[in-house]
Amino acid sequence: MSTSVNGGSVVGTTKHDVGVASGVGRTALLVAAARAIETHRDDSLAQDVFAEHFVLAAPASHGWPTRLCQVPDGEANPLWGRFARYFGLRTRVLDDFLLQSAHTTDARQVVLLGAGLDTRAFRLDWPAGSVVFEIDREEVLAFKHKVLDGLSAAPRATRVAVPVDLRADWGTALAASGFDPAAPSAWLAEGLLFYLPAVAESALVAQVDRLSARGSSLAYEVKLEPDLMTYRDSPLYTATNQQIGIDLLGLFAKEPRPDSAGALASNGWATSIHTPFEFTHRHGRGPHPEENDALAGNRWVFANKP
Questions:
Q1: Is the pTM higher than 0.85?
Q2: Does 149 fall in a domain?
Q3: 44 within domain boundaries
Q4: What is the CATH classification number for the domain harbouring 195?
Q5: Domain region containing 266
Q6: I need a labelling partner for 84 at 20 to 30 A (CA). Which of 39, 112, 169, 289 fits?
Q7: For residues 5 and 278, what is the distance between their CA atoms, to the nearest angstrom?
Q8: How far is 36 from 212, CA to CA, in rounded Å?
Q9: DSSP run (H or E) holding 303
Q10: Greatest CA separation found in the chain?
């Protein structure tokens, strides 16, 4: 069943989930907690003042920290130190990608695939005329709407919620919501694809290609490890399971991943693939490589359709 992940819905999984209460859906709350911690750091890379309110509103994240000072071992904690810093870095990098697409390529349509608890429509400085489409399941969006409405939050761009499961015909639902496939668009699949079966990842990327006019861009995250279980004893995975009961390895798709970047390139997209550590070096903050590193196979892919 489709689930929410890191602010996103998943196509074709079997992990049952209701909203953000369980399964992959709880990882949306994990990332919200990480963004809250990042927001309150003195050297913050990204600001999301709404994130902690999701954590506080959901029973599934009761007692989770939203500030590093609430974690007894602070930065030394593999989950709320290193892993949370990773999510903070990812947030900043993808914020920059979307804003650059909007400001320099005239992509005024932004599509968040499996938007979940993403609040970019509310917190980024969008150029005039921008429209942010948020695709996710109705119950996930309803939770987010309830929290944001309680804060009287106002979006900084035209925001269009598209309540549809990504297993369904989301392209038709997106078009019915006002999306124009003839205009440039910026697409984001954050923390989504490594939960998908390979065939579902390929289908989603192919649909994005079909709906993208020239001048469009896409960013997404993948894992390239041939065997995810290589890092089953990594501090990052074990701490996440032990401290908040999320078994990430039990949620990830274990089959070999498709070459989505190669498929895009064969269709005329210009693609680049980066490790997160490259951006740690660029920003001077973020995770560094370590032994038995669960982040070793993570790659951030950026693509543009000339």
A1: yes
A2: yes
A3: no
A4: 3.40.50.150
A5: 85-231+254-304
A6: 112
A7: 24
A8: 33
A9: strand 298-304
A10: 52
